[in-house]
Amino acid sequence: MAEQLVTAADANYSWGGKIGGGLVAGLLAATLWMGFMMAYSSAIGDGPTMPLRALGALVYGIEALVAGTIAMVAGAGIQLGFSIVLGIFFGLAMSRRTSLVLATLLGILVGIAIWLGMNLYVLPFMDPTMAARVALMPIGYFIAHVLFGIGLGMTPLFIRAFTRGRGQETQRIDRPSEPLLT
């Protein structure tokens, strides 16, 4: 009889690990995006809260630039929510075996695609205030999206962390190598 060893991770598809890993990667991506944009905005003299207030303009319009804390919280919520959802979708497309280099490259490509889509289609129509702010710092906005993609690219690490121990057990599946004669 031929024996085949199959790991438990192969036998059981782990939705929870993928969703959890993607969620955490989305949070990391949002943190990298917001942290860089806040530092960059501060360095060019706009103040650290400008990117979050500009995001909050999706809800509050142009008044978000002077609205204060409520607009910043709305902007952070928008970025976190979008990043978590995107991270979960990215996580569902990954596995614990996905190469970290491949996932990072794919994450960067996703970040650049989001940068393009936001600049060309979404912001001009849905958040013209943010579009105007982005036009003042296009290089920073691009770098922030590359960092966002790097955060997404960490998804396989988080999936591995959430599914740790599942791939270490083995099951033996016995299959006859020849048909049985009676």
Topology of helices and strands:
Elements: E1 2-7, H1 8-11, H2 15-43, H3 50-60, H4 64-67, H5 69-93, H6 100-126, H7 128-136, H8 138-153, H9 155-162, E2 170-175
Antiparallel strand pairs: 1-2
Helix pairs in contact: 2-5, 2-8, 2-9, 3-5, 3-7, 6-7, 6-8
Keywords for this entry:
single chain, mainly alpha, disordered N terminus, 9 helices
Average pLDDT, all residues? 87
Spatial order of strands in the largest sheet:
1-2
Principal-axes geometry comes out as elongated
Total E-strand runs: 2
What does this structure look like?
This protein is mainly alpha-helical. It has one domain. It is built from 9 helices and 2 strands. The protein has helices at 8-11, 15-43, 50-60, 64-67, 69-93, 100-126, 128-136, 138-153, 155-162, and strands at residues 2-7, 170-175. Strands 1-2 form a two-stranded antiparallel ribbon. The longest helix is centred in the N-terminal third of the chain and has 29 residues, at 15-43. The chain is elongated and about 50 Å long. The model is unreliable at 1-12 and 168-172 (pLDDT under 50).
